[in-house]
Amino acid sequence: GTQDVDGVDTLSGGMANRTLTAIRLAQKYNLPLLYTGGNLYDNEAKQWVVVQRHAVSLGISPKRILLETRSLNTTQSVQMIQPILRQQGWQKPLVVTSAYHMPRSMEIFRLAGIEAQAWPCDFRKSRDFSLTMFSILPNAGSLENTSIVLRELLGLLSLHTAYRTW
What gap in Å lies between CA 1 and CA 44, rounded to an integer? Predict the structure, then answer.
């Protein structure tokens, strides 16, 4: 329900970073844009609507935008885009996602038999990271990063256990 330049509802944080990166790549290399992902909660803005609006407003033709709007996690996304990839004849999709999520994403694509290419974005730390007194003090950002690392490690582990969803 937030006001945006060309409509209502906005993207923030990692979602905004991933979307902008994907749009820029689509523009630079004249690629189609396939967005995948549904909404976990009914009271959220429909992300695909906002992504599509941003892409169009930044110069991507609506004809070059494909949407998969039902998946609720990465495994479902990969499963649900397989028919789209076959139909379009795409052999090596370029996967744009947060750098911290890329290892798990690429493993899911590999397990599905899809030879994907990675384009990580939304990095949490710079390569020039330096350890200072302040970087070891507890803070909300560090807690969030710890949560992300644990989630991704558990997600990777689950891909090779009985908890695998396919």
Answer: 9
